[in-house]
Specification:
The protein has 13 helices and ten strands. With 370 residues, the protein is an alpha/beta fold. A hairpin with a 6-residue loop joins strand 2 and strand 3.
Length: 370
Amino acid sequence: MNTRNDAFRPNALPAWIGSLPLTDHDEAVGMMMEYTPEIPIWIQLPHNKNEGMVEQFAPGMPGLDVSGGKVRVDTGSDEFDSELLAFFEEYMAATEGAAADPAVDPISSPGSRFALHKDIAPGFYTFLQTLDGLDAPPAAVKGQVTGPFTFATGLVDADGRAVFYNDQLRDAAVKLIAMKARWQVRQLKKYGVPVIIFLDEPALAGFGSSAFISVSREEIDAALGEVIDAIHEEGGLAGVHVCANSEWSVILESSADIVSFDAYSYFDKFVMYAGQVVRFMEKGGILAWGIVPTGDTDAIDKETAASLFDRWQRCAEKIESLGITKERLIAQSLITPSCGTGSLSLAHATKVIRMNREVSERIRKDLNVG
């Protein structure tokens, strides 16, 4: 377990997963700063066509073809071999300091394939402008990438086969995500507060099912580990978010600093991994409690901050019964929605993020958290 999270104890502060049902980034960042100024994040707006989970992080991938409204890797093009070679050369230069000019940062230099560019990730740059204008530093800042497993199973070749099943393409895809995570940490650590990068991994909900019957635990461990290591090497904290049930031992036994889970719908499944949960927390791991529902609008309509606080307390008592003190539990908890709100109506999204803040405030007030 990475020990740099010793410097970050969230104490049940509110945070977001990262998406809103808007199209304007200034409006999105204003909404974010109203509800989660302690841990600001950059917002993804999936209503904009370039801000999908694959589309936003695919630029820089060798052989990338975005023609016809589709995103794929064309390994049959005349340029593919040279593009693949150029990719790995740039990766080696960035990670091993073999750039032609040592004074130039090959990761952050203009034109780097590993950067998030304004036409693809405008929310990141709006976020930086907001951070530049803050009067006081926040408790932490948060970025995100699509996790390597979700990215490499969502990006396909010309035949429609996921690049995860091609060893060479999987290696490139994982390294691309690792470098885009590393790039974000490098941009954000200048603010002098802990930097958190979440790996959004919805596809891990399908691990072990017939959909991924040929995928091994070792392959997933290697992909997650490579990206988490890149974040750690830059001095950041790595979180893994899965918005449904999963084989939680994969994440709890990884080197992730934060495990983000849907505590509203799947807490009983999560707590079945009691031994792993205890070991994770004893090593300093942080639980990001997705206690506010996002997947069921009827649940959003019926719940209140008070009912969700009561629900969280019942869940927390089960964790305490495993031998985790209340003090440790609170210190190592974040309060979040169960997933992003980009697919909801604006009214439902607003209620989710308002309740999220109110639940956090209730926990911190009623349990005398500073």
